[in-house]
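Homework-ish question, so no full write-ups if that breaks the rules, but can someone show me the predicted structure for this set?
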Amino acid sequence: MSLVRVHNFSVSLDGYGTGEGQSLDAPFGHAADRLHRWFFGTRAFRRMHGDEGGEAGVDDAMARAWGDGIGAEIMGRNKFGPQRGPWEDHEWQGWWGPEPPFHTPVFVLTHHPRPRLEMAGGTTFHFLAAEPEEALRRARAAAGGLDVRIGGGPSTVRAFLAADLIDHLHVVVVPVVLGRGVPLWDGLEGLEQRFRTESVTTPSGVTHLTFTRRT
Amino acid sequence: MSLVRVHNFSVSLDGYGTGEGQSLDAPFGHAADRLHRWFFGTRAFRRMHGDEGGEAGVDDAMARAWGDGIGAEIMGRNKFGPQRGPWEDHEWQGWWGPEPPFHTPVFVLTHHPRPRLEMAGGTTFHFLAAEPEEALRRARAAAGGLDVRIGGGPSTVRAFLAADLIDHLHVVVVPVVLGRGVPLWDGLEGLEQRFRTESVTTPSGVTHLTFTRRT
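A: Not a homework solution, just the prediction itself:
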């Protein structure tokens, strides 16, 4: 059975998944790197970007589950890039350079059409105007029987949680108060009742929470 | 040096310290017991209410720091009782019965005057219209050189944090999404910069976070 999974999704104590004022220079807005410092130090992050070294502890173990058995990703347009509204041109090819770390089809949810974009290393971006159910149907068809990852940002994860389409959710609670930004939990009252939860803290100070759908 | 401390303060993943719709039958509103289940099972909670038994693990160790070295408490009126506005009568004497677990002076912040209330076991409720600084001055004078605890609810803790009067904050993040209620973190952007933080999860599923003021 193909599962729908979320990995390495950081939130602040006040529940923001990204800061306010996202831009080319500030992909996470005023949050800067505060939500993701735990991740940058891991071997998994380094390897994802072609580097060596990094820590091999619990943060790393949690982080590296990100890619195993994934056949496609769905992401919101705000994760793909800082533009809003119709595409001015097609020069922007995402934050990740010529060889993005996904190595699968990636479905970018946007109301503004754009031709698909084939990158090196097996990543192909498809641009899709669709509700969560339809987007998932398309991603599953492309995933070859493997799992589908919902890649973020917060509004996209929230929409898939609200539609009860997520089987496995890995959230990283970071002990910072952002004060403003894009919330993850809004409209999800009682979410925990649909899942079994586990949690572990690590020396980096974050808490890894896993939500596994009750069967 | 007398410190100002907060203990055993539970919040949901979306940052609510209590639910919506607080009343005589529902002191935590629609949150019911979801924020405090971890606490009810501890030896500390049982002993606080004159009972025996309970768990003696990490939840208990964290919970029992609540009383050590405390000479006075400050609480919001909404923690004292469900009434709002002027006191209709003086029959309500708090949630805690004839012998409350505080055993110290307790300053209840309210704009509506009321004579002080002496209970069995050393608890005296004083009703006080004051801003945080003035309330703390009064509580310190009554605490005989011991520490002052800020007892809640969320609005009261938040006001003392905003005024930068807290030295030690113990927050318990409970993996539930309440969706609505009284928020703890609003207006406290960047709070973590004033504190060193530590965290630990326990088998009850909660995460204990401690904030210790940087010196």
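Now go work out the reasoning yourself. Hint: Residues 132-142 of chain B form the longest helix (11 residues).
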